[in-house]
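for the writeup, i need someone to sanity check this before i put it in the appendix. the sequnce is what the collaborator sent (i think, or maybe the updated version? ugh). structure was predicted straight from it, no edits. if anything looks off just tell me and ill rerun, i have time this weekend
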Amino acid sequence: MAELPRVTVIATVLNEVETIGNLISSFAQQTLFNIEIIIVDGGSSDGTWERLQQFAAQEPRLRPIRDESCNLRSSPGPIARGRNRAIQESTGTVIACADAGCGYAPGWVERLTAPIVAGDAEYTLGGSYIDPAQATVWDVAAAPFLGIKLRPEGLRKSCTTRSMGMSKSLWKRVGGFPEVNLFGEDTLFDLRARELTIPVFPEGAMARYNPRFTLRSAAEKLGLYATSDGVLGVRRMRLVRNLMRCAAQVAALIALRWTFVPLLLVALLEICFAFEHDVRGVFNRRFVKLVPARVLFSLMAPWIVSFNHIAGSITGQNRRNPQNSRA
């Protein structure tokens, strides 16, 4: 019987001392035991590196690497550089990408990489979800606008490195993760990978994301992603759709001088936009708080996306994220 290819699980961290324990615990509990775990630290100053060393002493499969070039001071794309460094150092021929802010069910690695291990695919996408029962109101409100599901069942066809699998040979043919931008390395990798192969979306391979958003931090996260899209020049149709929503809202308000009908129509459309992806997850015991928050965030989203996308395309610069600000 042929020996199965080895899987390497990778992640990058920078000032993640509060979340690193949950990540390592998730990896240690994986049902696919013969894995290698490589975590690249970009020069943390909050104790993350020290915690990684402690975990490595207890978990022989974990290999932490400290590389301070994986930081905005040294690279315009520190996250991509960290992922590339981890894959370069890997001994596995199959790669599973993860993120520090997530937790992973025991069967995650096995499900995510099974099509690649079996030789049926070179590229898999698992997606991510949040648990509405444990999430903040603004986690739930912002979820669909950040490509996040409210339940682990089913498929999430989003290109996020919170849960992304690939053969090492595909990574080489793509040219690695583009080290050109703070965010969006997964989007660019996905675009290039799809020119070479068709992704597979395995069930049960979602990452459990736990952002703990407030209204402000959720809006900032959406703005960071939109700025990155503008800098990279991607998702232009998304910008057009959001500009059209902004224009419709303004036109409906102006039309109130003569009639309320346009405002009513826009309100109905915005409610559809707010709940089109995950209505079952929102209508739970916290209905009274969740529904108004979702509607409010849906109204804000086109303005946040449009402003930040345009700003990114004009300035060509990303805003710093909290982790890099502390480094």
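The chain is about 45% helix and 10% strand. The chain has a mean pLDDT of 89.
thx in advance!!
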